[in-house]
Design goal:
Layout (H helix, E strand, L loop, with lengths): L25 E6 L8 H9 L9 E3 L3 H13 L8 E9 L5 E3 L5 E3 H9 L9 E10 L7 H6 L17 E10 L5 H13 L5 H7 L11 E4 L14 H29 L16 H34 L1
Parallel strand pairs: 1-2, 1-3, 3-6, 6-7
Antiparallel strand pairs: 3-4, 4-5, 7-8
């Protein structure tokens, strides 16, 4: 079958941070012991998206001094070849939503973390993504869960004042319960894997669902100058859908062509599956060729109709 090519008009191409792959992306994990069994989903998602999950880039939130020293070391590295910077910070919080309690009992504020990343000179003009999860333990011995939830302090948004030139996106999410297992983050990692080529990260964060018992939506602050897509791709948004649909149509047409060729070459089997008996007269052969041709025309017509339908939806 003749190959076709989709040429996307330049005015419809999303303004995004361009990069060839995620091998040059910098990815760091910070978590405390409460997340020991609950951070595998995030690592698996980014690994599927092409990021290199390095053991030396995974740190324990043990003491405030150690965490800040690690961040200083990270920001002092040369990131000129880094295409993007992603930091996941999963820690335990108290009554203050933006105050993380270390294993030693020290407290770290969110701005102490992202402030250091923002000042890194070699990350200037590069997208910097920081995802915070603040886990607050709920006492599960109480019998009336509805009353216990009403007595909890109402979470307030962290006071994030990010300079406009910083190319940074910060997402903050509070999780309450006996464990930091979060439906929202489970859905977020799944959406990143499934839709990371189609949708930019800001949209994925916005449409990711949380469970109905989760009272705390994610809070996102962004000074990104362009759209950031987790997965590099030639096609985005509706053009990604059109490209995928055309690829599927091509596969179906190829399968149909192969099936029609097989039916046209084999008329009947005389007890031996390896012996072809040629007993079809010319009239029957011409009739079958005509039917096959009609089928091909019908499939191609359906292909063109599908493409035009998708394009019309895109314009609307």
């Amino acid at each position: 079958m003749e190959e076709s090519e989709i040429r996307i008009p330049s005015e419809l191409i999303a303004d995004e941070y361009l990069r060839k792959d995620n091998e040059t992306g910098a990815l760091y994990f910070f978590s405390d012991n409460n997340y020991k069994y609950f951070d595998d989903d995030s690592k698996r998602a980014f690994r599927i998206c092409g990021f290199d999950i390095k053991k030396e880039n995974q740190f324990l939130i043990d003491t405030k001094e150690n965490v800040l020293n690690i961040l200083d070391k990270i920001t002092n590295e040369n990131h000129k070849e880094t295409s993007c910077f992603i930091l996941l910070f999963f820690g335990t919080i108290g009554s203050n939503n933006d105050e993380y309690i270390t294993e030693s009992g020290d407290k770290i504020r969110g701005y102490e973390i992202w402030g250091k990343i923002m000042k890194c000179e070699t990350l200037k003009y590069r997208p910097k993504i920081i995802i915070f999860q603040g886990f607050r333990v709920i006492n599960t011995t109480q019998t009336d869960s509805s009353n216990s939830r009403k007595s909890l302090p109402i979470p307030t948004p962290p006071d994030y004042d990010i300079p406009y030139y910083s190319d940074m996106l910060i997402t903050y999410k509070v999780t309450e319960g006996p464990t930091p297992n979060s439906t929202y983050f489970h859905n977020l990692w799944r959406n990143i894997v499934e839709n990371g080529s189609r949708d930019d990260l800001t949209n994925i964060i916005a449409y990711t669902k949380r469970c109905r018992y989760d009272d705390f939506p994610p809070i996102t602050t962004s000074t990104l100058r362009k759209k950031f897509f987790i997965k590099p791709s030639q096609f985005r948004i509706h053009w990604y859908d059109i490209h995928k649909n055309i690829e599927n149509m091509k596969k179906n047409i190829t399968m149909l062509e192969n099936k029609l060729k097989l039916q046209g070459s084999v008329s009947c089997l005389d007890g031996n599956p390896h012996v072809v008996v040629n007993n079809i007269n010319n009239e029957d052969s011409n009739r079958k060729k005509s039917k096959n041709y009609d089928k091909k025309i019908m499939v191609i017509g359906l292909l063109l109709f599908g493409v035009m339908l998708l394009i019309s939806k895109t314009k609307n």
